[in-house]
Every structure is written in C-alpha cells, then in structure tokens.
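Box 4.2: Ligand-aware structure prediction
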Amino acid sequence: MSPSLEIRSFRSGDGPAVSEIITSCLREVNSRDYPDETITLMCEHFTVERIEQLAFERQMFVAVEDGAVVGTVSRDGNKVFTMFVQPRTIGRGVGRRLMRHVEMLASAEGHDFMETGASITGHGFYQRLGYIDVRTSETDFGLNYILRKPLEDTRP
Ligand SMILES: CC(C)(COP(=O)(O)OP(=O)(O)OC[C@H]1O[C@@H](n2cnc3c(N)ncnc32)[C@H](O)[C@@H]1OP(=O)(O)O)[C@@H](O)C(=O)NCCC(=O)NCCS
C-alpha cells in the first residue's frame, strides 16, 4: 500500500470515479459469484446519480492513492454499505483501511458493534476482519450475509 493512501469524505465530483470502481468490481470480481443478469442489474443500479444520492443519505468515504480514488465505503451509524476497491488495487490493504475508518467513527459515537451486509464475494473479507455471521437475507441481488463485529477493540 502506498504511504500516500488517504481516507477522506466523498466530495462533489467523486461520483464518476466511485461509480466506475463499483461497476468494474461487479464486472471483474463479483461476476465470478453471480449470474450475468444480476451483475447487469447491479451495474445499472450504481449510476453516478445514484452514488451522489447515496452520498447524500449516508456518510460516504473514498480511499485516495497518488491522487486517484481507489476505493469506497459508506456508513449509516454502525451499518456498512457499498464497500468496493478498484480491482487493480485489491489485496493491498485498502479495504481494511476503509473498514477501520468507519469502525473508528461508529465506535467514537458509542456503538457496540458494526454490522454489514456481505455479498458472496465479500463474505470472506469481512470474516478475515473479525466479522461474525448473524443471519442471511435475500435481496434483489441474491443471497446476502449479515455479519457483526464488536467494536470495543477499535475504541481510540
Ligand atoms: C472485498 C474487498 C472490498 C476487499 O478489499 P481489499 O482491499 O482487497 O482487502 P484488503 O487487502 O484490505 O484485505 C484485508 C484482509 O482480508 C483478506 N481478504 C480480502 N478479500 C478476501 C476474500 N474475498 N476472502 C477472504 N479473505 C479476504 C486479505 O487477504 C487480507 O488478509 P490479511 O490481513 O491476512 O492479509 C475487495 O476485494 C472488493 O472490492 N471486492 C469486490 C467488491 C466486493 O465484493 N465488495 C464487498 C461487497 S459486500
């Protein structure tokens, strides 16, 4: 991971980069676990306009490396949403840094646990970070794992 990696809040103008990261992930990474029709539906969902709307409704963050947006995550309190890392950058610790960021914020607000929904593709990542399965749910995009992690370890 580059020492220049920075996590900052989503800004006006980040929408195209975030939309591009999400759709690249869906096509290049999540496609190994989902049928083409589901990937197409999800790509159609994450337009620039939709990202800007989500950034208004939740706290959205981006990871920036050498001036380029390479990952994103969102949170609403202790709930995690839209965690994606640019496929070229996967496996270099960006996802862990983004999750640490939202966990610290939720912990500072007094939440006892973090909760995330995970795709089949993202499930192992969350487990590696200490998240534990609590249930599964069915969404428009298929099976979703719900996982939680206690936050006492992340208190500043
Ligand atoms: C899942 C994702 C966000 C992980 O981001 P990343 O930057 O590659 O993750 P990191 O490099 O920070 O990995 C942190 C740890 O998790 C592990 N890990 C990452 N992805 C994993 C997976 N799918 N299964 C098991 N372990 C995984 C890493 O090996 C690393 O372990 P280590 O600390 O022992 O080395 C990224 O692969 C991605 O965007 N995937 C496609 C989109 C997606 O599925 N998003 C989740 C939506 S629910």
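In the box above, the bound molecule is coenzyme A. The chain has five helices and seven strands.
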